[in-house]
Amino acid sequence: MNRVTLSQVARVVGVSKATVSRALAGLQCHSPETVVRIKATAQKLGYRPDPMMTAIAALRWRGGGKSGELTFGFISQFRRAHAGMDAGNFAGAEARAAETGCRLDHFFMEDYRHSAALQRTLLARGLRGLIVAAFFEEQPAVMLNWNKFCAVSIGLSPYQPPLHAVAQDAHDGVFMAWRKALDYGYRRPGFAIGLHALPVHVEDDENRQSAALFLHQKDRAPSERIPPFFRSLADSYEVRARGFAAWYRRWKPDAVIGFNNLEMQFLVREAKARIPDQVGFAALSTWPAEGIAGIKDTPQGVGAAAVDLLQQTLRTNQWGLPETRIRHYLEPQWLDGPTLPRRR
To answer: Which helix (H) or strand (E) holds 71?
Structure first.
């Protein structure tokens, strides 16, 4: 089957090939209505960008382009996925790469003695576009000659190279959960948030913690303020459960905004609270199958956005480490659930 071209899309819409190219690349061209028509027509005709033309344009001064399917590298720190995130990120990135006529190969730092060995493998395979997954621990580190690659990262931690990055907006997720609880009629919501302990370091922890502390300071009235409960994820289940139960009994929030479904277990098993009759509950990390209200976890969306960002860096010929790192945050998504029903 012949590939649909930009020229074919342009003829159907009645614009120039250059206009179609600019619209599909997300660059300013004609009116928003024209852009919508172009994108709709391209989708209807089954247009996909030619991956090799994209690669040739981006690699024109670099060499290393090979004929055939364009392949990107996805670099994870460990084969074991941190909280399942790597698996979700890779699945989303792989699906998005396929949609754009590309392929994604997965590499794990722990499989290589050092970064130089990984770099030799990447260059031998002609892989110049890379996605660096979240690195949560100091070792093994990834230290490549970044001038040889176009690369972006997923997540934010001090163990990653300072590349343009894509992440879920953990800070705004806290604000969204808080606003939803108040809008639903709860007047004394309280945060119970888990924090990783070294050597694991995740910037999301700092974003959630700072947002919760800010909202505690800016609450409606001093009499309604409930101090956040922060637990270390390195502590045993028993220690975390006892600490949470003591906090809950002391402050009696009418809704708990927890880190994940573990706080709901603490409420039911340790605090003997009835959800939602006695207390509402929302999680800062959940998904539809859990049936819990809260912020939807979207690792696949982050992975897909990383592919889009990588392709943009290739199109604009951005090689090496950027002078100024740009962070791209995915807007949080709210999931309604029976654990946090409306009270008004």
So the answer is: strand 70-76
d(CA 21, CA 6): 7
Does one domain contain both 175 and 292?
yes
Q: Are 125 and 101 in contact (CB under 8 A)?
A: no
- Looking at residue 84, the DSSP 8-state letter turns out to be G
CATH code of residue 139:
3.40.50.2300
pLDDT in tens, 208-218: 999 999 998 87
Contact assessment for residue 302 and residue 154, using Cβ atoms and an 8 Å cutoff: yes
CA distance 147 to 94: 24
Q: Is the pTM of this model over 0.85?
A: no
Is residue 123 within 8 Å of 148, Cβ to Cβ?
Answer: yes
Amino acid 89 reads: N
Inside any domain, residue 69: yes
Collapsed DSSP state (helix, strand, coil) of residue 172: helix
| Residue 190, H or E segment | strand 189-195
What is the C-alpha to C-alpha distance for residues 49 and 318, in angstroms, rounded to an integer?
19
pLDDT digits (tens, 9 = 90+) for 242-294: 999 999 999 999 999 999 999 999 999 999 999 999 999 999 999 998 999 99
